[in-house]
Specification:
The chain has about 725 residues and is mostly helical. The protein contains 37 helices and eight strands. The strands form two sheets. It has a five-stranded parallel β-sheet, with helices on both faces. The protein has a three-stranded antiparallel β-sheet with strand order 6-8-7. It is flat, with a radius of gyration of 30 Å.
Length: about 725
Amino acid sequence: MDSFGARLRHLRRTAELTQEALAEKSGLSSQAIGALERGDRRYPHRDTLDRLADALGLAGDDRAEFAAAAARPGSPARTEAVPRELPGGIAVFTGRDTELDRLLGLLGEPRQGVVVAIAGMAGVGKTALALEAGHRLARRFPDGSLHLDLRGHAADPPDPLDLLDRLIRELGGEPPTPLSLDAASARFRTLLAPKRVLLLLDNARDAAHVAPLLPGAGGSAAIVTSRVALTDLPQAHQVLLDVLPEADALRLLAAEIGAERVAAEPAAARNVARLCGYLPLALHLVGARLATRPRWPVAHLAHRLEDERRRLDETGVRTSFALAIGALDDPTARAYPLLSLLDVPELSVPVASRLLDAPEPETEALLERLTDEHLLTTPAPGWYRLHDLLRLYAREQVPAGEGAAAITRVVELCAAMAWQSMALVSAASHRHDWAAGRWAAAGPASAEEVFAWLDRHQAHLVTVVRQAAATPGVPREAIAAVGLGLYEYHRARARWRDAIQVDEVALELVDGVDPVAAATLRNDLGVAEAELAHGGEAAGYRRSHAFLRRSLADWETIGDERQLAGTLNNLCFVYGLGDDVDAAIGFGERSLTLNRSLGLRHVETLTLVNLAVLYGRQGDRARELAYASEAVTVGEETGDVRGMAYGRMRIGIVHRELGRFDVAVEELSRSADLWRAAGVRLYEAMTLAELGRAHLGREERERAREVLTDALELLREYGGAERVAEVRAELDRL
C-alpha cells in the first residue's frame, strides 16, 4: 500500500495542482503540503485530511481510502453506521443565491459549534434552503447529519426531553438517569464534542424550544429553521428569508413549467407570480399544476388566481391549495380534510383508514393518489405527511361534526390495539372486567405483532389522547380505555414517561365519574412514577406512594378485594424500590393472604417473587428460594408466563450468588426464553445480564461475552443508563 505522502502527491498531480495551488484551495500552508508528501508528517490530523479531501474533490470510496492511508497502524477501523438523516431536497431549487452562499460560507469551514438560524413566514422556503445547504455540506461533516422536525407551531410539539433522548441514542449514548432537561442537554453536547455532525432542526417555536438541542464546543454545527427570528440565541447567525424577488419567482415558475411557456406569456407569468405573493411553496404548487396540463395557457391560471376566494389569506397559498384539491374527484376531495385532523407529523395507513372510515386497501390507494397530486408526501412506506400549511387549509374544509367522529374512530383503534396487547400478555388481569370485551380488535394474532404496531405508533399515542380529550364529542370512556389498556405495553417497553402522560389525561376525564377506571389509573400512575424515580429523587416515590395509597382506599370503598390485592402487591414492589423493605414485606404478605383467601392462584406469582426478593435482601436465602420456587409452580399451574419467568430469574440469581453456576445457567436460560415469549424486553435483558455473569462463574468467557453483548444491546433501548454502564464495564473487563 502506498504511503500517505505518495498517495497525496499522486492525487495532487492527477488534479493538475501545484503544491502552492493545493495549499491555497485547502487553506493549508505549502510547507505543510511538502512535509506531508515527503513523509515528514505521516499521520495528519482529521481536520487536515478533510481540507485536503475537499480540495481534491474526493468523495465516497476514494475519500475513505485517502483517510485510511493516513491512519496509524493498529488503529481500529470505523465500523459504526454514520447517520445521514437529511430528507431529499425539493426537485426544483432556484434563487436564494445570497442566502445559500452565506450558509455555505458559515458552515463550510471548521469552526466551534456554528449555529445558523433561518427565519421567515410559513411557505417561504426555509426548509428547502436548509436542505440544499445541508446536502452540499454533507462531506464536511464525516460523522453524519441528523434531522429533527420540532413541530414548534403544532398544538402538541414534541417534548425537548424526548428529542434529546433520540439524539443521544443516535450518537450511541444513553440518556442520564434521572432524566432532566439540563442533564440530557449536557450529555448530548458531551457526545457531540469530539464529532463533526450537522444538525438540521426544523420548525422551532422559539429560542427556548431549540436551545437545549444545539451543539457546544467542537466541530459540529446546526441549521435551525423557525417562523420567528431567533434573536435571543446569541450564538446563532441570523438569516431572514423574505418572499422571492420577481425575477427569481419567474425563474422558479420557468423551472417548473418550462422557460418557453414563460417566455411566450411573460405578462401572464408575472401575474401568476404576483398573485402567488412570490411565495416559493405557492409557486411550486401552481407550477406543478401547470406542468401536468401543457395545453393550459398561463393566462388561464392567472385568471383563476384573480379570484380572492382562491387564495389563503394575503400570501396566495389558499389559491394554490384550492387548485390542487380542485383537481381531485369528489370522494377524494371530501376525504382529504379528514387527514388533517390529528396533531401528529405523519399518518400510517391504519390510522388514516379510521379517519376516513374506509377499508385499508382503499385508503392506501387514495393516499397514493394524493401523493401523486403533491398534497401528501411519503417519508417511509406506509406513512404519509401533510405540510403545515396544507394541514391548516384542509382543516378549514372539515364539515361540522365530522372531526369529533373521525378522532373518536382513531381513539377506538388505539384502545383496541392496547387491549389486544393486554389480552395477549395478561389474559387473567382483573381490568378485563372493566373492558368487558368492548375494545376487542380483529388484528395481529401474536403479542410480538401487536407490540410492533404499538412501537410504530407510540410516538403519537400521547398526542392523540391529549387531542381527543380536548375535542368536544369524543367519548371519555374511549380515551380512558387507551390508558388502561396500555399498562402491559408501557411496562414491557419501560415507557414510563408515556404512561404518566396518557394516564394523567385519562384520570382527569374519569375521576368522579368512573370509580373503577379512576382507581385503576391511580394504581398505574403509582407504578409508573416509582419506576421513573428509581435511582432518582425521592419526590417521585412520594407521588407514587400517594397514588397507590389513594388507589388502595378507592378499592376498599368499591369493595373489590381482587383489585385490592393487586394494589397491595404494587405497594410491595414500589416500597421495595424505595428501600423500605419492612413496609414492602408487610404489603406483600397482606396481598398474598388476601389472594389465597379468595382462591386467586393465578395472581399470586408476582407477589411471591416480590416477597422472595425482599426476603433475600434481608439475608433469608432459604425463604427467598422457597417463595421463588412456589411462584414457578403456581405459574406453571395457571399458565402465567411472566410469573414463571420472574420466578426462574430469581432462582437463577440466588444460585449464581451462592456459586451454584450450573443450576444458575439452567434457570436463567429458561427465564430469558420466557421473558422473550412474553415480549418483556427489559426483563429479558436483565436476565441475560445475570446469565452472562453465571457463564463467567463457569469460566465460559466467550459465551459470557456473547450473552452480555446481547443484554447490552437490549438495555440500550429498554434499560436505564446505570444498567447499561454496569454491563458495559463487565464487557470491558472481559
